[in-house]
């Protein structure tokens, strides 16, 4: 999707989160690769995000270390992108 430069794609992104929230569901954006996408998805109201922007695929030990860093506040969650936008 080219949500940053195509209105039609942005409308799909926006309406998806609106529909999910109307159904009282939380929404996860997958495949977030850039800060710009993270900020746009946060602004659209997505609750969570995952993707290479946050971390590449990790082995189990590295994943455990990443999660510890996240819990210590040194990894930026989607909420931080929302504040930055």
UniProtKB/TrEMBL annotation:
EAL domain ranges (all copies): 1-71
Single GO MF descriptor: cyclic-guanylate-specific phosphodiesterase activity
Source species, domain of life: Bacteria
SUPFAM superfamilies to which the protein is assigned, alphabetical: EAL domain-like
Family matches, as InterPro entries: Cyclic-di-GMP_PDE-like, EAL_dom, EAL_sf
Stored Pfam families: EAL (PF00563)
The name this protein goes by in its record: EAL domain-containing protein (Putative c-di-GMP-specific phosphodiesterase class I)
Annotated organism of origin: Povalibacter uvarum
């Amino acid at each position: 999707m080219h949500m940053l430069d195509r209105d039609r794609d942005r409308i799909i992104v926006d309406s998806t989160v609106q529909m999910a929230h109307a159904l009282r569901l939380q929404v996860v954006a997958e495949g977030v690769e850039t800060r710009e996408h993270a900020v746009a998805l946060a602004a659209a109201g997505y609750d969570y995000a995952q993707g290479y922007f946050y971390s590449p695929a990790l082995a189990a030990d590295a994943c455990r270390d990443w999660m510890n860093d996240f819990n210590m506040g040194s990894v930026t969650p989607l909420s931080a992108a929302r504040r930055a936008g």
